[in-house]
Specification:
Helix content is about 15%, strand content about 35%.
Length: about 300
């Protein structure tokens, strides 16, 4: 996993296309907010996508997302995921600031079809249990889910050497998300084209070259109510060499401020994992900007 924590700024522009004023790269189907619960179509996505992007707010105030997976528990209407004590950043962030978001936007391996599968954004509040989960017990559904969508993970519990040197992998912190709003959006249509030859050898050039290896990225930011929000986007070069232009879907509520981009990929069995995170400043409807000063 590659992470960039230097000074990056993303220039965000809402640019209407000629065909009816829609933003480039997004289908004409409007987003649908279905309230705090999951509709049948949203639940189908949540229960079939192999990963989701989970956004927490870092100590610096930057909304940052990482790919993960979890389960939906219909009896309580909550979503539950876990993180190893070896990588507790998500848990620390949740305990400090319970505002979170989850985006189900990568249909790879889900069987629903990449051309028709929707994006589902869940905005809500999370809590992280203080007790450590060291056996399946009440969280057995989490482990069943992991083993079902990532077959290679099944070898870990039965390999004595891995169990001895990687015991912290099985020591989990449980995070429970209560949804406040669920929004269903159409899949993104265009692909990132950032121009790898225009940003030089500095940090922006490094980011551009890395982003160019992914078809799309996930934007994490805040909406007008101060809630973390996310959407999958494509990126384009702009006249200035200080950032990128991001095509936003129509009606996407987002404000200028701290932001980050997550790019990641996996195969149909949730393996061959790759990921890249860059953090900076989001400027809405503005072309000229200074470099951001945020660190993740």
């Amino acid at each position: 996993m590659v992470s960039s924590t230097g000074e990056i700024l993303f220039a965000i522009r809402r640019e209407a296309a000629a065909n009816g004023g829609t933003s480039p790269g997004h289908a004409t189907l409007a987003a649908m907010t279905v309230g705090p619960g999951l509709s049948d179509s949203a639940r189908e996505v949540v229960e079939n996508y192999r990963t989701c992007e989970f956004l927490t707010v870092a100590k610096s105030g930057v909304p940052i997302a990482w790919p993960t997976n979890g389960v939906f528990r219909p009896e309580s209407g909550t979503l539950v995921l876990s993180t190893s004590i070896a990588w507790p950043h998500k848990a620390h962030n949740v305990r400090r600031d319970g505002r979170v978001a989850m985006l189900f936007s990568d249909p790879t391996g889900c069987g629903l079809g990449s051309g028709s599968a929707s994006q589902v954004l869940v905005q809500g509040t999370a809590i992280c249990a203080r007790q450590l989960s060291i056996a399946p017990g009440p969280d057995a559904d989490l482990w069943r889910r992991i083993f079902a969508i990532q077959p290679s993970a099944q070898k870990y519990p039965f390999n004595p050497f891995i169990r001895r040197v990687m015991d912290m992998y099985f020591m989990r912190l449980i995070i429970t998300i209560t949804p406040d709003a669920v929004t269903v959006r159409p899949p993104i249509a265009t692909r990132t084209k950032v121009g790898t030859d225009r940003h030089g050898d500095g940090i922006l050039g490094d980011v551009a070259r890395e982003l160019s290896t992914y078809q799309t990225s996930v934007l994490s930011a805040f909406d007008s109510d101060g809630r973390p929000t996310m959407t999958r986007v494509s990126l384009r070069p702009i006249a200035s060499t200080e950032g990128f232009a991001v095509d936003l879907p129509d009606g996407f509520d987002v404000t200028s401020g701290p932001a980050s981009l997550l790019s990641h990929s996996h195969n149909d069995e949730l393996w061959n994992l790759r990921g890249f995170v860059s953090g900076g400043t989001l400027v809405v409807d503005d072309v000229h900007f200074p470099l951001g000063k945020n660190r993740l």
